[in-house]
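Protocol check, entry for the methods section draft. Step 1: assemble the input record (protein sequence plus ligand SMILES). Step 2: submit for complex structure prediction. Step 3: store the structure tokens unaltered in the notebook. Ligand used here: S-adenosylmethionine. Step 1 record:
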Amino acid sequence: MKKQMKQGAELLGIDSLSEELVECLLLFAEELLRWNARINLTSIRELDGVIEKHILDSLVVTGLLDKPSRILDMGSGGGIPAIPLALALPNQSFFSVDSVGKKINFQQHIKRLLGLKNLQIRCARIEELDSAGLEWNGFDVVLARALAHTNDLLKMALPLIGPAGIVIAMKGPEGEGELASIEDRWHRFYEIPETVVTYQLPFTGATRCLISVRRKDD
Ligand SMILES: C[S@@+](CC[C@H](N)C(=O)[O-])C[C@H]1O[C@@H](n2cnc3c(N)ncnc32)[C@H](O)[C@@H]1O
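Step 3, stored output:
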């Protein structure tokens, strides 16, 4: 499995993964499946599927996170993409939010197990998070994977993102269509799109799309 993870990363153009990082990512994947027998964290049941569709897919975002940032993952579920990214980018600060307590308990377990100091975790509804009430005021990057339509993500992110911050929507093949249907009102607040990256997962060839949108300076 370690070889598969490294090979997949190479095929996706992700910077080479250290042995220690691969071990941590693998442990996360195994724990995700172990807890999945009791609580619903993922529909994927096999380790190779978790590695490709959750871990490697999360790591593709590292290519868009080049400078030290405060990063919010909205609706992170079992910690995806926040946990693989926090492991891969120890100098970036992550804040992971989901409204389901059992999923947050799993993330807390992983944080303890892997000693993840750059990850904060909160059980809350996104709409009830107010940047003024957070320790961090205005995120540089807001991520969301499999949470909602891009229009809804832009609405959720607006009160939480700082000036010139970016929203990255992690999408499947529907991404291009969603981009075309972004409502006019969001062009007042965001540069749409900042970038779009379309890629294929390395083993199944499934299509993924990263839509990146920058908030305009106030
Ligand atoms: C389909 S799952 C995706 C989880 C994870 N991002 C992934 O890619 O595996 C969507 C997650 O968003 C959470 N969620 C949905 N609406 C939310 C909201 N308004 N506030 C916080 N979390 C929310 C759900 O509890 C669920 O865990």
